[in-house]
Design a protein that fits this description.
It contains 13 helices and 14 strands. It is α/β, with parallel strands linked by helices. The chain has a single domain, classed as Rossmann fold. The protein has helices at residues 8-15, 18-27, 29-32, 107-115, 144-152, 160-191, 205-214, 227-235, 280-291, 297-303, 324-327, 329-335, 342-362; strands spanning 2-4, 47-60, 69-79, 90-96, 119-123, 131-133, 139-141, 198-200, 215-225, 243-247, 255-259, 262-265, 274-279, 308-313.
Length: 373
């Protein structure tokens, strides 16, 4: 290796289920998965992958006591014959996983985009991710305190102010991770070199440089599932972000505080094109918030979006917006899917995501979305 140096029940949609399923399926794949070979892609390009770790010297790793710096693994999906592309050709999409999630949670989505000429970077949030690896090769598992708190924070006896203090700390970490990744990718693309922040296998250096060389950093999309979607929304306020997708996540990064037990929401205009995708229960909670005059973050952000879209999937559960129901059906069904056909759901979602990014990152066609699917 080389170092180149709400309601409370509404908030539960972010935390309860996603990581347990994803990580359990990964760790016990020998016992629980069926023959899952991914989804068939519809684009013209064969796919390739590579990875690296970005080391943020400006931040200490707060989950450790050894003075180590924050590390953010990044995993690239892109067209295989990358050297056939001209410079600044392929738009960039960056993905953030949910609580206890894993960078591979939406592999079919990354592959579909890459097959159509996108560079997709899925990042891990160490200690929020069920597991990942650091630059020493050590497996880093989900932090036990984070895990327990995330499963209990939505309880009816937890005051809003306490929930806000907890979730805002989580969001600050994730937002800093994603901002750091955006900045480092742009810097490497501009410099045509990998700085000291990059840690990678020597064999991967040339392909990493080649991928960054053909990436169009003037066309950056962000997306994420669950708490990762919330992360994408807040980072998406950056002027250099062109489009954002929130996949079934409560937009916690837009909460600014609690006054007299009432959550305060950022009401600044949201100027980046935004698409919000929800499951049916999450959609019902949004409707109830309007009916009961409750200031729910997703409603407020979309109301103040200059170009905002939303849709929901009937009979879908939170995990139907990941590949988990296709990897481990029994485990996924037991822990949080709906009655929707899982293959049809993920394929439909991926086609919507592709059309959205084609419109706002490639300037191809007009985008519209149905109220529900």
């Amino acid at each position: 290796m080389t170092i180149q140096k709400k309601k409370k029940n509404t908030k539960l949609v972010i935390f309860c289920i996603i990581g347990v399923i994803i990580l359990g399926a990964v760790l016990f794949r020998t016992y629980v998965i069926t023959d899952y070979n991914g989804r068939e892609t519809t684009g013209d390009y064969a796919l390739a992958e590579t990875s690296a770790i970005l080391i943020d010297d400006s931040r200490l790793e707060t989950f450790e006591q050894d003075g180590s710096k924050r590390e953010v693994p990044v995993h690239f999906y892109f067209p295989e014959n990358i050297d056939d592309f001209s410079e600044d050709t392929l738009p960039l999409v960056i993905f953030s996983h949910g609580a206890f999630g894993y960078y591979q949670s939406n592999t079919s989505t990354y592959m579909e985009l890459a097959s159509h000429g996108y560079v997709v970077v899925s990042l891990d949030h160490p200690y929020h991710s069920f597991f990942t690896k650091d630059s020493s090769g050590k497996t880093v598992t989900v932090d036990s305190e984070f895990f327990q708190t995330a499963l209990s924070v939505g309880g009816s006896d937890v005051p809003e102010a306490e929930i806000y203090d907890i979730t805002s700390e989580w969001m600050q970490l994730r937002i800093a991770d994603m901002n750091f990744v955006v900045d480092e990718l742009k810097k490497a693309g501009s410099d045509d070199t990998l700085s000291a922040a990059w840690f990678y296998d020597d064999k991967d250096k040339d392909i990493l440089v080649s991928v960054l060389k053909v990436t169009d950093f003037d066309k950056i999309g962000l997306m994420g599932h669950s708490m990762g979607g919330a992360t994408a929304v807040t980072v998406g306020r950056r002027a250099d972000i062109s489009a954002v997708i929130d996949i079934d996540g409560t937009m916690l990064g837009e909460e600014t505080g609690v006054e007299d037990g009432v959550v305060q929401i950022n009401e600044d205009p949201y100027e980046t094109p935004l698409l919000a995708i929800a499951n049916e229960e999450h959609h019902r909670q949004e409707v109830d918030a309007v009916r009961n005059s409750y200031a729910y973050a997703n409603n407020v952000v979309l109301q103040n979006a200059t170009c905002g879209y939303e849709t929901y999937f009937k009979n879908a559960g939170h995990m139907n917006f990941t590949d988990l129901p296709l990897i481990s059906p029994a485990l996924a069904n037991m822990l949080g899917t709906g009655d929707v056909d899982p293959g049809e759901c993920i394929d439909t979602m991926n086609s919507i995501i592709l059309r959205f990014y084609d419109c706002y990152l490639k300037g191809e066609g007009e985008f519209s979305v149905e109220e529900s699917y």
